[in-house]
Each structure stands twice: as structure tokens, then as C-alpha cells.
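User: Second chain of the day. Same drill as before.
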Amino acid sequence: MRVRHPELGPAPVALESTLLAHGVPRGAARPLADQLDAIVRTKGATPAVCAVLAGVPTVGLSPSQLAELLDANPVKTNTATLGLAIAAGRHAATTVSTTMELAAGAGVRTFATGGLGGVHRGYADRLDISADLAAFTRFPVAVVASGVKSILDVEATREALETLGVPVVGFRCDRFPAFYRRESEATVDERFDDVRTLASYVSMELDRTGRGVLICNPIPEREELDAGAWSLWLAEAERRASDAGATGRAVTPAVLGALHEASGGRTLEANLALVRANAALAGELAVAMSPITPG
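Assistant: Same format as last time:
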């Protein structure tokens, strides 16, 4: 697949467009994009938003291209539907899996996001597993994320990553984070406390396997949601999504949107905080990897 990527600056960091187009309220998208851009640049790295523009896979959207994408209300695409968007000449926002695919095609090795998709609860009755997980087996990209979205089956997702052979390492944490919560019952494969040591390992592992690495960066402690309040908000959000008739791929965005409402915006604030923290770590990692990245 040919990926359009204007001359990217030093230490590029991929950023997904689905977060901007579908993951936050429309009014928060441009301010968030500007914040992530500034955070990555402050670390000495180069932000590179990924998307499909009129059928062209693109890594490193300009401000005008991003505005065009957001105004177009783009479809959300995963690895199963990316080719359909390209063939039809559509505007499309990239999820974790398709951002990894585009980033790998452009030679970008570091990617910052919020949380992965994963195994949905109740999967024994209806198999529902995000394409994000399998993408790690195909694309050599280091993904900085706050674990997996808390609305999913966190422990089952961690087991699925193990089954797929995906290295899961923690940055200054020993347990697998769960998006709004800093810890789950699951663990990570290894803990790293120093960015340069992490960069050395990640560079080696990407080259060794040609596959991805998940770097877990828990939500900042001051932004973590209270466990009791979180449970109440989630129950209410799931009820609202069910009443709205959300099914399949529409469930996750419906529940997340309902969570923002049920929590009075508290979950949105937490979401934005962890994404900003992940962008900062990804920027540091990209810069640390640059001198030791082949080519």
C-alpha cells in the first residue's frame, strides 16, 4: 500500500484521527489536536496525524487537511474496511489498527493513543474482539496507550495479547492499566522506568520480530476515576446505549458518549488527560529511539 507522507520532521509520532473525529465531542477535536501537536513538538518529536483523504492514505496531515477531514464527518475504518475506503475515494478516520498500518507504511515506529480496543464483555456468547489486537502481529510500531478501554473485558484482552505474542511492557507500572483506572488484575511482561532503556528494547524488538509492542502508560494519578463512581457511570452508560439500540461497532462509541454525559464530563476530562500524557511519553520515546533506529 502506498502511503502519502509529506516530508516528516525528526522523530515522528503517529496520532490517530478516530480519536479526534469520533472519540471526543466535535468542539473538543481541534483544541485537542493543537494540544497533542504542541506536546509532541515540545519533546523534540514531530506529530503525524494519520487518515484517509479522498481515498489516499496519509500520514502527517496539515492543519487544513485535518480541518477538511473533521468537517467531512469521516467514516471510521479498521483493517478490514481500510481498503474499501481507499477504493471508494472516501475520507476516513483511522483507528488504532489502521493507524498502525499507515504508520508502518510510512516508516513511523512510534504511535500515541488513548486506549486499545479489545475483547468485549460477554464474548463467550457473542465473539467481539477489536482488530487492534491482531494489528500488533502485523505492523512494527510501538504503541503508547493507557492499556485497554475500561468498558471492555480487561483481563480477557490481556490474555488475548499474550496469546497473540504481543509484548506488553509498563512504563513505571507493574500492572496492566485500564484506561480510566491505573491498575487492573492483570500484569505486564516487564517494567521500564527509564525512557532510554525502553527505547533500546523497543528498537531491538521491532527489528527482531517485525511486530508491534504495547507500552502501557497509566492515566496520571490525579486524574484517575474513583472506582465506585466509575461503576455507577458505566452501568448508566450501558443502559443508555442499549436503549438507543447500539449494536456491533456502534457499541463502544455509544457507551463512551453516554459515559461523558452520565459523569458530567468527568470521563472526558480523564480521557483527554491520559491522551496528553501518552503523547508526551511517545514524543520522548521517538526522540530516544531516533539515534538507534536503523536507516
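The two ends are 20 Å apart (CA to CA).

User: Great, on to the next one.
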